[in-house]
Amino acid sequence: MPQPEVVDVLASGDPVAAFARAHRAACLVALPTSGTAGMPRTIVRTTRSWVDSFPYVSDLLGFGPASRVWIPGPLTATMNLFAAAHADWAGASRVEVQDHPTHAHLTPTALRREIATRSDQLAGVHVLVAGDRLDRATYDAARDAGVLVSHYYGAAELSFVAWGHHAEDLRPFPGVEVSARDGQLWVRSPYLCEAYLEAEVTPRRDDGGWMTVGDRGDLTDGLVTVHGREGGITTGGATVLVADVERLLRRHTSGDVVVVGVPHPDLGQVVAAAVSAEDDVDGLRAVARRLLAPAQQPRRWVHLDPLPLTVHGKVDRAAVAAFVTAGAHR
Q: Are the C-beta atoms of 241 and 247 separated by less than 8 Å?
């Protein structure tokens, strides 16, 4: 039996229309990962693995033909292309922020910036936040500004995994099963990808249809907690998990904080923190001394505003590390 054609929808001048054509023709689609946790890859998935989730997303967002959605990020990011394809399926309009959207799709960093600069334009808008963990403080700030917020955890390979208001309020997305095995999250659902386009790599699956991308996490009383990918910063023989440090520091900052590892001649690496709100630095230093283990405490602090972003709207951690390293040698 012939294999379905694989369509690179981003090679088209209109990837949303290309996705719709691929769906009508029962083709597979090739989509890039963001490369946040390693080398970027190209995943292959059925169009149904997205389309079958559209009704659930519409229901959770109160989304329909009369909706007006703002998607400021590039369509090369799968979360944005999904949002645009969903709007096309629903018959909704895509608009700019000044055109009074009813819905928007933002990363946590973008949401923080919008609240700080033009929260009045987002009042009453239902914003779906993804691409990184949405902390409770940012959610509360958005809610206080009159923004309706939903948040989901997913991955290019997995699509939707869990949905809620913020990172501490995530439950499995409809039709999704989540399991925590030895501190690692595994997923079984109709929304998983088929394969990678690169022949040398294969998705991590088991015989029961479960799949993982290596994210650390827990499942407790139905709540999904995501801690980030394996690995961290090795400093003086100790391994510091970036997600653990960021999660604690973000509870005490009015802006954003990004933790990276930077080279050190004796310790291999040391922990460094870039803070977007300069007034937060002294307070965060005190918090780190009080609440973090010695190896976890940032040895270098920098004020960096705005934080550099990748083309997909996520914080560019490599650029942050380069900025901290360059500053250390001035």
A: no
**Burial letters for 273-303: b for 16+ Cβ neighbours within 10 Å, e otherwise?**
bbbbbeebbeebeebbeeebeebbbbebbbe
Q: Are 268 and 234 in contact (CB under 8 A)?
A: yes
E strand or H helix at 164 = strand 159-164
Query: What pLDDT digit, counting tens, does each position of 288-315 carry?
Result: 999 988 888 999 999 999 999 887 778 8
List the one residue out of 133, 169, 168 whose CA is nearest residue 154: 133
User: Which residue shows structure tokens 């608009």?
Assistant: 95
Burial class of 104 by CB neighbour count within 10 A (0 to 12, 13 to 18, 19+): buried
Question: Within 10 Å of residue 88's Cβ, how many Cβ atoms?
Answer: 15
- Residue 236 CA to residue 227 CA, distance in Å, equals 23
Q: How far apart are CA 161 and CA 266, in angstroms?
A: 41
pLDDT at 97 over 70: yes
Q: What is the pTM of this model?
A: 0.76
Q: For the CA atoms of the chain, what is the radius of gyration?
A: 20
Two structure tokens written together for 117 = 């600069």
Token pair of 108, please? 């946590």
pLDDT top residue among 74 and 91: 91
Strand-strand pairing, 93-94 and 68-70: parallel
Domains 6-228 and 233-328 share a fold: no
- Please report where in the chains the tokens 């997909």 appear, as a residue: 312
Q: Quick count: other Cβ atoms within 10 Å of Cβ 272?
A: 24
| CATH number of the structural domain 6-228 | 3.40.50.12780
> Rounded distance, CA 229 to CA 252, Å?
23
DSSP-derived letter for residue 315 is B
Domain 233-328: homologous superfamily in CATH: ANL, C-terminal domain (3.30.300.30)
Q: Assess whether the previous peptide bond of 263 is cis (omega < 30° from 0).
A: no
| Residues near 62 by beta carbon (within 8 Å), at least 6 away in sequence | 126
Annotated domain spans of the chain:
6-228, 233-328
232 exposed, middle or buried (CB, 10 Å; 0-12, 13-18, 19+)?
buried
